[in-house]
Amino acid sequence: MPAELKAQTKLEHHIKYSPVPRELRLWGEMIVYSIIILIVVSAYYFATNASFSERILNRAVGDVALLLIGFSLVLSSICYFWDFADKYIIYRKHLGLVGSGYMTIHIVFSILFSAYSPFPGYYLEDKRIASFIGALIATAIFVLLAAISNRFAIHEIGATRWRKLMRLGYIGFVFVLFHFGAKGIQYWTPWLTGKSESIFPSFSLIVFMFGVGVVILRIALWFSTSQKSKLGN
Ligand code: HEM
User: Fold this and answer.
1) Mutate to test the pocket of ligand 1, among 110, 187, 191 (most ligand atoms within 8 A of CB)
2) Domain span holding position 100
3) Fewest beta carbons less than 10 Å away: which of 156, 178, 179, 195?
């Protein structure tokens, strides 16, 4: 059974046998959880930096976007291999869309904050252009997926094709990892090689490792489903 179909079956099972989830409550919960995550991430920056600038705020918002979108994507893999997270599958759409909301705020900050001016000249400099192109591709993919995350679109596109289209999210996610990994690596290397004075890693390294975990689990899932379909033939 394709991974997304199994996740969808679990979602439908959960909706059928548990008290009817009220859509508004789920959105409310997700927004509250996301604010808690933003506070925790900001506290990490507070603890590890001398000051909390507008630039750090933008980084924290970008981190929350990546974490929420990553949780949304990884739920399919986790629910395929294990059962412990089945009850959280109902949040998949809300995680992805609230994450896209933080992504939008991050992009607006990245255009408006003076730390990144002039726009777009700042991003078109040689050392930033590759990261910027990665960000643009990821943004285009996530905007498309957000636009089709509704019943009307599923009905119009057809469930099977819609599920296949949603897999684009992983490609967008890899582009986001490239977007900040390309710049971050120079700051992470001293910590990874034990040459950093700080015992705490940069938060971008933590989210990058999380992102790599999301991608590895998806590859494991793809491997497992393709092995099963080969055995079935
Ligand atoms: C055109 C779109 C985008 C622009 C212009 C942009 C701009 C930026 C900039 C300037 C930074 C570095 C911040 C700094 O060091 O001061 C950054 C980092 C980051 N961005 Fe974006 N971004 C875009 C899209 C995205 C998207 C789509 C996501 C995720 C869904 C994202 C997530 C991140 C993350 C996680 C970081 C690293 C934050 C950290 O240092 O921990 N960005 N972005």
Assistant:
1) 110
2) 3-232
3) 195
Q: How many domains does the chain have?
A: 1
Asked if 41 and 63 touch (Cβ cutoff 8 Å), the reply is yes
Atom of ligand 1 nearest to the CA of 56: 16
Query: For the whole model, what pTM was predicted?
Result: 0.92
- Taking only the tens place, the pLDDT of each residue in 50-108 is 888 999 999 999 999 999 999 999 999 999 999 999 999 999 999 999 999 999 999 99
Each residue of 122-146: pLDDT tens digit? Answer: 999 999 999 999 999 999 999 999 9
